[in-house]
Fold this protein.
Amino acid sequence: MILNLTIALLILKLVKGTGDDTKYNGECDLEMFGGQKDALLACQAQHALQQNWFPDPIQGLFSYQTWNGMDGFWQNGVLVETMANSLQYLNNTRYKTVVTDSYRELNELLLAYGPQPSYDDMAWYGLAYTRIYEITRMKKFLELSVKIFDWIWREGWDTYSCKGGIWFDNNMAGKETIENVQAVQLGARLARLDKDKTLEQKAFQVWDWIVDTGLVNLTDFKVYDGLSMSTCKADQTSSRYSYTAGVCIGALIELAQISHNTTYLTMAHNVTRTAMTTIVNSDGILSDPCDQDYSCNLDANIFKGIFMKNLRYLMDYDPNSKNIGDYRNFIEKNIASLNNKDHCDPKDMSGTDSKNPCHIVYLDGPPSYDQAGPVYDSVWSGPYKQSRPIQQTSALDLLLAAVPPGVRCNKNPHCSYNPRPPPPHQLTCKDDPCPSGQDCCEFSGEYSCCNPDQVCQDNYCV
């Protein structure tokens, strides 16, 4: 879909931080977390995400080509939930206004893409806003999440084709797994938080349809990507992705909570174990099919983090499960691979000739701060090639999954760092701001990254 930037800029809300950023640059240290290394790694990844790309990610929600936001609308929703989880798991208030000022009215979200976002796009915001409500108890986020679910249900749920299911978007060309497992997770979570039996009924209605179509196989617990509209059954020839399994796990956790039926919790563990053994590479590292040849598009580059986010939710809900040890080992194995094979730190590359040795991609927006690290790429088994905010968010979800419960952040102002967004400073093509394989074009002091099928001629992308 095409971003309606003109309308979007009109509704952009500037975020004002409250922290004092003149005495402290926001870097994390072990003392903040009492020597807890997993918490330090997550804190550093969050800081690098903010430092390199965002004065504030939600500030770039409707103008991300200018403000270095995500390379797509829906990933901003994923990121907001990740930032909320950072408050929770790191037990601090760093970048809190990123979370609390992320509120957007329903019509503002709908205006971000024309003619309207897809139903799964909107569900990411619904899930993020329910999580923000859980952590901050700001009721407006819960109320907005209900409005988002109601819009998805009113516009997307259909019983004429395949006797149910939510369409991918208003073109009604297909019904995919992701928007349906999202509807279960969001509807059931809202039913739990808002005590609404109608939402509970709808969540179970979607889940029953998912089971009937075989999108989730309750024998081998594989989660398929989409539906064959000709047979109304799961397309078992399609690839299986980590994020659909992850959201399915999250959905089953919510069903278990509202029903008090442990069958759903058992299913969640079974889906998890299947994903951990089948959506991995030969070294046992979480790996989507496109990771094998480094062909993932920008959407897929955030998938693995979504799985890890929901794995952490499962560990939170069932901390005494016999599977916990295996889950922790799996997370730590992935983190070890990430740090050994798929990261870059500008400080460690200070002796290189390049001004951008880690190849931090900025697209069409100048950064506001100096480069910070560590930064990560998309394939956790390496090799590292370049960094973008999508890859960094996915890595942050992995790192947050390892933070032990009960961690405390105990040193101010470090634990309450919340800087005001500064003005950006200008880049040129000499800073190598574009993705690999895309020409950089300058004109009148500005630059633009050409599309992959374009070249720069006479200062224009053609």
